[in-house]
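Q: Make up one entry.
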Amino acid sequence: MLTIRGAIERLSKNRNQAFSILDKNLALLGDLRFVYERSETLEKREFVTQVFDTNLYYENGVYRTPYMLPVFTHNHLIMKKEGLLILKKGDFQTKIPLGAPEGIRTPIDGTGNHNSIH
């Protein structure tokens, strides 16, 4: 019985310590710069993919995208003013090639059928 109580006390202390560490660092999760800089390369790549839905591209010295997660769009005018990012809906279709260099792509029409375009 003493062994079980000792284990419970030991685990409770570790749990309390874990919650203490979490409580001290929880605010850092809202600091995206901190989170991004602490991330590994693949984590950074996944973050960018999630925020821009794989539609981020670089043109004429500026990053451009037709999509950004809505939670981040409140800063897009500041980023545009500073020449960092241009958020322009509809830009994707005209700027990024939709298929191979030859222009081959297989879209799906409204019926779900595949139509080849050559």
Observations:
- The longest strand covers residues 62-65.
- The chain has five helices and three strands.
- Confidence is low (pLDDT under 50) at residues 92-98, 114-118.
- Strands lie at 57-59, 62-65, 85-87.
